[in-house]
């Protein structure tokens, strides 16, 4: 996937005052896998709502252990007992995969509490996104007119604040869908189509002033005839090359890059340009 940001912060770093994440050795920008998966989860939750089988486990509504116990209760499994039998935990794990989209897609560690639901290795994995060029983080000074306390109000009607942005950055992320693991978690073809829709549209329902203008520009999907892969993933990823249209000139829009796609893919592989 190729996505970009204009005058915004695509993924703040709590260890650096929430400024845009960067590789400190190269100044290339970074967006974490957790950030991207959060946006996929939010899209699925928005589109599917309360539809059975499309719940989202990882969200700040209730504690995870409470959800695990609820899963045991709904399916008549013994709760509150220490040292659960393996077959009981396995049943609980399968029920969690059936109920939650993000569990059967991304996997989850659900082995905590008195009613553990095991560990699921997700068939969908996403790498960190990295910018195609070094980024320059700017701290923009802004004027704040709403003071938070009466004491601060006494010093004046306004105060200065900071906003960290990237003027422009084009990011590339790569991911994988494992067919053998999908069979274990129950990830269906319909779930995978939903995943593609989520990737394409996840920024459209996540706009904010802090993130600026974020757009999914391209999504390329390689499909293998063999369940065990018809070609190594890195060979396929190398077929898509992104280079600056004018080297040495700071990029400020998507057209400042050239995307080259080698259409001669290895035997047994189909390349589809989803966006």
Identify the notable features of this structure and list them briefly:
275 residues; alpha+beta; flat
Task: Explain the overall architecture.
By secondary structure, this protein is an alpha+beta fold. It has a domain at 137-166. The protein has eight helices and 16 strands. It has helices at 33-48, 64-74, 86-99, 101-106, 150-153, 179-185, 189-201, 233-237; strands spanning 2-8, 12-13, 19-20, 28-31, 107-110, 118-121, 124-126, 129-134, 137-144, 159-172, 175-177, 213-218, 220-224, 240-244, 257-261, 269-273. Strands 1, 4, 8, 9, 10 and 12 form a six-stranded antiparallel β-sheet that branches. It has a two-stranded antiparallel sheet with strand order 2-3. Strand 5 (107-110) and strand 6 form a beta hairpin. The longest helix is centred in the N-terminal third of the chain and has 16 residues, at 33-48. The chain is flat, with a radius of gyration of 22 Å. The mean pLDDT is 93.
